[in-house]
Design goal:
Layout: H1 2-10, E1 23-25, H2 27-33, E2 36-41, H3 51-60, H4 64-69, E3 71-74, H5 78-90, E4 94-98, H6 104-112, E5 116-119, H7 124-138, E6 141-142, H8 149-165, E7 172-176, H9 181-193, E8 198-204, H10 209-216, H11 239-245, E9 251-255, H12 257-271, H13 281-293, E10 299-304, H14 314-324, E11 328-336, H15 341-349, E12 354-360, E13 366-374, H16 382-391, E14 395-398, H17 403-412, E15 424-431, H18 436-443, E16 449-456, E17 462-470, H19 479-486, E18 489-492, H20 497-502
Helix pairs in contact: 1-8, 1-9, 3-5, 3-8, 5-6, 8-9, 9-11, 12-13, 12-14, 15-18
Length: 504
């Protein structure tokens, strides 16, 4: 079967639609991890993912009668675009059934290429079931996204290019896994020609269907599938891919959503390409492999498998990046509710960068603050930060791995105080540099009490900060004078209706 698959890969029809993509070096990552790290740029395909290869090769095998009736597929997005483009080039009608979770950018791209889109279900399985119903009704030919030997052969041409382009040392190839078509094609070709090269699959931990199958010794259906990386949100590995990869691949690594977000940033910093989360999946696995094994001096290649992401998802990806790189600790800390406590807390942290701070006055004796603190990559010194705070008398809860805290509480902390009091509300722009916060606190009069504080680092030159202040004796005549002396831009927001409605 292996030799037959390799022959199919070498005979595959892909370049009428696909292009040969380059391998980009990743100098920043390579220096950081002491290995040569390479990225195969399948995001540069005409449909911004590798899926065009398998779709076109399968279409090329159809009879004229099948082409006349039209084709159909169920897809989370990238296969849909590949099939839509292939069908348009061949003049064949295409119907694509897509899960409702599919990013709008992918839906619009499929429609723009002339295919009819049907949105059905919340995951791939429901879309696939509906596609089968349409086949019975209209006689379409189903073009599978991964579970087909001709699709596997088309995807395998990625490996042909890799071994030709990287003829020298290559220790391991990291491949994203959804249904398994890409890793099956790559593993077959690489292990046939270069069995010394490791082929390692990478899965999202909440849709790890290949790992589950390998552990069970047979294909299994996951009870549920996470959709953060919708391009690999598959509940069961394909039958054809599994028959190949179960005896060929060297390992499977699973990664978290945060780790994928960090990999999106890494790819951008080295190539200026914006990968989708599933597109950065294999790099996340490559990084984890280095951390787990401690390898140095090796040549490791990952595949940026796609760049189809909604622009509005980038905010969430950026927010989770620091956590994915384990550069940020999220903590809940209890401090005394009295003037100077915030300043004392910041001095206890020392020169560490505060990445986020949320607090709202609620109790006259204790204040509960939500704080993000920058730590070393990998989070090696996170516990040291916690220990230092506890030794200084603070009660600390580590929320770094708490999904509720990361997704929701950080945006909800605060609200209204338990009783009415007078405060002045100001919005500031802080320069994003160490010491900016302590400088602000130091220059405030010692008897002013901070009653509200919210800040989040957004990677810009200036941080956006909201501060509520209680001024002793209600004397507000000198507030502007003190704030002007600090030197940061500010705006008074005490009369803002949003504040009055939700926070006062």
């Amino acid at each position: 079967m292996l030799e037959a698959t390799v022959k199919k890969i070498l005979q595959a029809h892909v370049y009428e639609a696909a292009c040969e993509t380059p391998i980009s070096s990743a100098p920043f990552l390579s220096r950081r991890f002491n290995n040569q790290i390479l990225i195969k740029r399948e995001d540069l395909q005409p449909v911004f993912s590798f899926k065009i290869r398998g779709a076109y090769n399968k279409m090329a095998q159809l009879s004229e009668e099948q082409k006349a009736k039209g084709v159909i597929a169920a897809s989370a997005g990238n296969h849909a675009q590949g099939l839509a483009m292939a069908a348009k080039l061949m003049g064949v009608k295409a119907v694509i059934v897509m899960p409702r979770i599919t990013p709008e950018i992918k839906v619009q791209a499929v429609r723009a290429r002339g295919a009819k889109v049907v949105l059905k279900g919340d995951a791939f399985a429901a879309a696939a079931e509906h596609a089968q119903e349409l086949i019975k009704e209209h006689g379409y030919t189903y073009i599978p996204p991964f579970d087909d030997i001709d699709v596997v052969a088309g995807q395998g041409t990625v490996a042909v290019e890799i071994l030709r382009q990287q003829a020298g040392r290559l220790d391991a190839i990291f491949v994203p896994v959804g249904g398994g078509g890409l890793i099956a094609g790559i593993a077959a070709y690489v292990k046939y020609l270069r069995p010394d090269i490791k082929v390692i699959g990478v899965e999202s931990e909440d849709s790890a269907c290949l790992k589950a199958a390998l552990d069970a010794g047979e294909r299994v259906v996951l009870d549920q599938v996470g959709v953060f990386a919708e391009g690999v949100a598959v509940a069961q590995i394909g039958e054809v891919p599994f028959s190949l990869v179960k005896d060929l691949i060297d390992d499977v690594i699973t990664v978290t959503a945060d780790e994928m977000c960090a990999a999106v940033k890494d790819i951008f910093e080295d190539t200026r390409a914006v990968a989708e989360t599933s597109g950065a999946l294999s790099l996340a696995g490559l990084k984890k492999y280095i951390q787990q094994t401690g390898v140095e001096g090796e040549t490791l290649l990952c595949i940026n498998s796609g760049a189809n992401t909604n622009f509005d998802r980038l905010q969430h990806i950026a927010e989770r990046t620091e956590l994915g790189e384990q550069r940020e600790a999220i903590l809940a800390v209890t401090i005394a509710e009295k003037p100077g406590s915030f300043k004392k807390f910041c001095r206890t942290l020392g020169k560490r960068m505060v990445t986020e701070f949320s607090y709202r006055y609620a109790d006259s004796s204790e204040a509960h603050i939500f704080v993000g603190v920058q730590v070393k990559p990998g989070g090696e010194d996170r516990q040291a930060v916690i220990d230092k705070l506890r030794e200084s008398g603070y009660h600390v809860e580590d929320l770094t791995d708490n999904e509720l805290a990361k997704l929701h509480i950080r945006h909800l902390s605060g609200g209204r105080p338990s009783k009415h009091f007078e405060e002045e509300l100001y919005r500031f722009e802080f320069p994003e540099r160490p010491g900016a916060l302590i400088n602000f606190l130091t220059q405030l009069p010692h008897d002013w009490n901070i009653s509200l504080f919210h800040y989040r680092n957004h990677g810009a030159a200036y941080g956006r900060v909201l501060v509520g202040m209680q001024v002793p004796n209600g004397d507000r005549t000198h507030v502007a004078e003190h704030l002007d002396a600090i030197g940061y831009r500010y705006w008074r927001e005490s009369d803002n209706p949003a504040y009055r409605l939700f926070m006062a």
